[in-house]
Design brief:
Number of strands: 0
Order of helices and strands: HHHHHHHHHHHH
């Protein structure tokens, strides 16, 4: 198998695994506190990442690097991953995945408002409108199928999680530290787990681990091994060996996988409105991504 073939295989793994991770997260939090589930996942995965490189002789990050990693952990793993995990407790995994897929749109808007360095042409504007319209259709349809009283909380925290990921992406693109990305992710996950455990304790969402049902542990195991380890390695490999436009395809596949798998495994609603809204959203995201690449190459 050639390097390019391996990269395409890695892209397939990333797309499918991260799509199913939304369903696994929803499965995990049905009978366990969401913040504690996310904290446990990050602690185990982060310890494995960081531990591996420490055993290979990697030095501990310096004080300034630790501060940077702690700060990024709040954006990328506490708010983005932690709140996204809370979100799937109250909304469908497909809707949560679609909201997360909107991050390229929010990046454009944030950079335009705060940095004044994004030109929003008609293609970008059309993409933003389509993305929001598609989400509105899925949201409207889901609103008639949800049963929990905290549906709006699920929507709100999922949007905050998406915005936090967007801000983290912008910061990373502007400033990076000289550290192996795999090693850095490990430390970010460890820091995030500490913040998440603290948040779970403060909000009264910390329970004895022995009360976790087997299904939660199975889901956490899948999230750690597949979502946080294998998929992350596959994604970074994809980014290294494929063009950015190709590597970004995972963002369009994730929600589709989440919607289909969610409907089969945990009986989430799958209507023609959800399918239409999802397609409209992904077309909007595609248009925004294409316009951004043209701006960079111009």
């Amino acid at each position: 198998m050639t390097t390019k073939q391996k990269a395409y295989f890695a892209l397939s793994v990333t797309s499918i695994v991260w799509g199913t991770s939304w369903v696994a997260s929803r499965y995990a939090v049905q009978f366990a506190p969401a913040l504690q589930v996310s904290a446990t996942r990050q602690l185990i995965a982060g310890s494995l990442f960081a531990g591996f490189f420490l055993l290979k002789g990697e030095k501990l990050p310096g004080f300034k690097q630790m501060l940077w990693l702690a700060g990024m952990s709040i954006l990328l793993f506490v708010f983005a991953n932690g709140l996204a995990t809370v979100g799937v407790k109250y909304i469908s995994s497909g809707l949560a995945a679609l909201i997360a897929a909107l991050y390229p749109l929010s990046v454009v808007i944030i950079e335009k408002i705060f940095f004044k360095n994004r030109k929003i042409g008609w293609v970008t504007f059309l993409g933003i409108v389509l993305g929001i319209t598609g989400i509105a259709i899925v949201f409207y349809d889901n609103a008639f199928h949800h049963q929990g009283p905290n549906y709006w909380i699920g929507i709100l925290v999922s949007v905050i999680a998406m915005l936090s990921w967007s801000v983290g992406t912008i910061i990373i693109s502007r400033k990076q530290i000289n550290l192996n990305p795999y090693y850095a992710i490990g430390w970010e996950m460890i820091f995030a787990s500490l913040f998440l455990f603290a948040g779970a304790a403060v909000t009264g969402n910390l329970v004895p681990f022995k009360t976790f049902p087997a299904q939660t542990w199975y889901a956490i195991g899948y999230l750690v091994m597949m979502g946080s380890l294998i998929a992350v390695v596959a994604f970074l490999y994809t980014m290294k060996h494929l063009e950015a436009s190709v590597a970004a395809l995972y963002a369009y596949v994730n929600p589709i996988v989440a919607i289909i798998i969610g409907s089969f495994l945990i009986k989430e609603p799958l209507t023609k409105e959800i399918i239409i809204g999802s397609c409209i959203t992904l077309i909007g995201v595609y248009l925004v991504n294409q316009s951004l690449r043209k701006q960079k190459s111009a």
